[in-house]
């Protein structure tokens, strides 16, 4: 879990990874407060008639990067009644540039084409994509509209989403990424789960529990 420390490298070192799989461990019983956190009051989800699983991430987090292939695999085979969404964190002010980029990509309709490439550029190619000019150049190099990207970057829709995210992250009690919120009620983190394998089991346990309600 990445603490809200001011230094970029400190942020990288302390974030925890989450591994996700599709099979629930229904026979296991996990304990609230020790295995996972309870969010009280619960936060309203984007789809109240579904079980919403929300991953909160930062493009610069190496553990979020390693989690991404698992996200892709799991979200491609969602159980009926379950919705998966990703939310870029800005609990550290330095992460806001990447959160703006994510929502700009989304508004441009290119998130599917550029999301993984952006992760790869940061972690495999070691590119410094930490300001609008560098990210705009990255967008243009991939054949997308740089001018449109710049227009969206500081747009009202992006600002609105960032404010909403900041409010929700406070309600969730988020202090690091990646973090997984199950139906606005439960917080699953590496620090509580103790291992990536147990995080998988806890997330699936909670999803199964919510589906049964």
Description:
With 213 residues, this protein is α+β, with helices and mostly antiparallel strands. Helix content is 48%, strand content 11%. The protein has helices spanning 8-14, 62-75, 96-108, 111-123, 132-141, 146-153, 156-172, 190-193, 196-211, and strands spanning 37-38, 51-57, 82-88, 179-182, 186-188.
Structural key phrases:
disordered N terminus, alpha+beta, globular, 5 strands, 213 residues, 11% strand, five-stranded mixed sheet, Glutaredoxin, 48% helix
Strand order within the widest sheet? 1-5-4-2-3
Overall body shape: globular
Kindly report the name of the CATH homologous superfamily. Glutaredoxin
Rounded Rg: 17 Å
Percent of residues in helices comes to 40-55%
CATH architecture: 3-Layer(aba) Sandwich
**CATH class assignment:** Alpha Beta
Question: What is the total number of structural domains?
Answer: 1
**How big a fraction of the residues is strand?**
5-15%
Low-pLDDT segments = 2-14, 16-26
Class based on secondary structure composition and strand pairing: alpha+beta
Q: H/E series, N to C?
A: HEEHEHHHHHEEHH
Number of helices: 9
Give the assembly state of these chains.
single chain
Tally of strands: 5
């Amino acid at each position: 879990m990445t603490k809200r420390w001011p230094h970029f490298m400190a942020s990288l070192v302390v974030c925890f990874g989450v591994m996700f799989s599709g099979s629930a461990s229904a026979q296991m019983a996990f304990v609230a407060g020790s295995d996972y956190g309870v969010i009280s009051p619960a936060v309203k989800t984007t789809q109240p008639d579904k079980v919403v699983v929300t991953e909160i991430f930062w493009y610069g987090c190496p553990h979020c990067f390693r989690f991404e292939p698992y996200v892709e695999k799991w979200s491609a085979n969602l159980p009926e009644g379950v919705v998966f969404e990703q939310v870029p964190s800005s609990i550290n002010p330095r992460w806001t540039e990447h959160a703006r980029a994510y929502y700009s990509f989304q508004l441009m309709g290119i998130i599917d084409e550029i999301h993984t490439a952006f992760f790869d550029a940061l972690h495999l190619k070691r590119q410094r994509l930490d300001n609008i000019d560098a990210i705009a150049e990255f967008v243009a190099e991939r054949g997308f509209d740089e001018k449109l990207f710049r227009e969206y970057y500081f747009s009202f829709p992006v600002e609105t989403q960032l404010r909403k995210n900041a409010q929700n992250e406070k309600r969730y009690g988020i202090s690091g990424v990646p973090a997984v919120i199950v139906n606005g009620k439960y917080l699953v983190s590496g620090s509580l789960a103790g291992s990536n394998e147990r995080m998988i089991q806890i997330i699936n346990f909670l999803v199964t529990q919510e589906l049964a309600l």
